[in-house]
Amino acid sequence: MTTATLTKIAVADPVVTPRPSAFDVRDSRAPRYTSYPTALQFTGAVDSEVYGQWLAALDPAERVSLYVHVPFCSRLCWYCGCHTRVVNKASLISDYVENLVEELALVEARLPGRLGAGALHLGGGTPNMLSRDDLVRLFGALRHVFRFAPGIEISAELDPATLTEAWVKAAAYHGLTRASLGVQDLAPHVQEAVNRIEPFETVQRAVGWLRAAGVASINLDLMYGLPRQTIADVRSTLDAVLTLRPERIALFGYAHVPWAKPHQRLLPEAELPGAEARFEQSQAAAERLVAAGYVAIGIDHFALPEDGLAVTKAAGRLRRNFQGYTADTCQTLLGFGASSIGRLPQGYVQNLPAEVAWRDAIASGRLPVARGLQMTEDDRLRGEVIERLMCDFSVDLSRVALGHGFGVSVFAEDLAALQALVHEGLAVVRDNRVEVTTRGRPYVRLIAQVFDRRSTGGDGFSKVI
Known about the structure:
three-stranded antiparallel sheet, Arc Repressor Mutant, subunit A, alpha/beta, nine-stranded mixed sheet, iron, single chain
């Protein structure tokens, strides 16, 4: 097929693009590239001892980012791809926080000094499962080990259904600056299909509490591609949430990976939208958001023009990490809690995912590491190419190669492999600069995958659309 068979639709923003009519890559799978190499390439070669050495080698003058994983929820959403479980006993959560404090002490013992922290993210799971006493203990330990830099961004992922005004006030007291609320879709028949009942009024109430407490940035997570979901549902949900004027909206395609997340088998799989319906839902949502004044950020984020994410994108400094697109400039991310992932100058490290094993390691005085990956210079080279493609939809291969001490010929095989996507009009190459075309932007993960020397293909990854 030639590029002439691709039908172009005129839209307001380049991220909102037409679908190919014959060359159909919508069922293709590729990594989300929140890291390179991806976590599937991690091995046990990076263990507690190696991580300890990496911690000791950190520059005391450099700020770091912190991530704390809270693997608990009060309900099981059947679409969920996170590492979490349902817990109803407060004592289990408090015990987990005590283990977090002990893990922080283990890390502190290996650090070269009291490092400054430029960002802190509480993820999960549902961080607002922590009690106010748990928050006091956790933040006390974090501030003891790290110096919170002026202007530190403290963010948390929250479940509106279980959020309370008292929790919001407590988190705001400890410095919460940004909150991410899971909404997904407001249609009752979709919520029933995914086991997440959440009326709009619940979301509206949560946003009101956060605004009143001085939390300046609100992000709402939405999804397309859910069971029983239609374009009308997507538009109706957007019409409702846009009345709240969130600073950011994350628009994710549901990743159906029941081989990795068995609880997804509880979904009515026969009622999942097909590839064409998923594409139409994503396009309808993007069109609506751009029309409402939001700036498209990469493949799945939208932000108001004055938001830090949009400002960073305009300045060409947008980054991508395990939380998605970010304005965070810290080069080191330290993860705490079961399954958390960190990145240091030497490479990636991931904690033990099973809570029992994680707790046992801490009790024995060991850093609770399961696996990781020590990056090569080729990994760093390719990681920069992939990050720039994911963030900017373009990359100057000559500049990147020179910056890593290579000649541009290092990309010869990749450029040859890229020609299939160039032929289909998804990318162009001029003077060793790769530009993702308007119609190619939804498929940028496939273009990035061309430069991935670690991935063995699409198996195990989510659909690109």
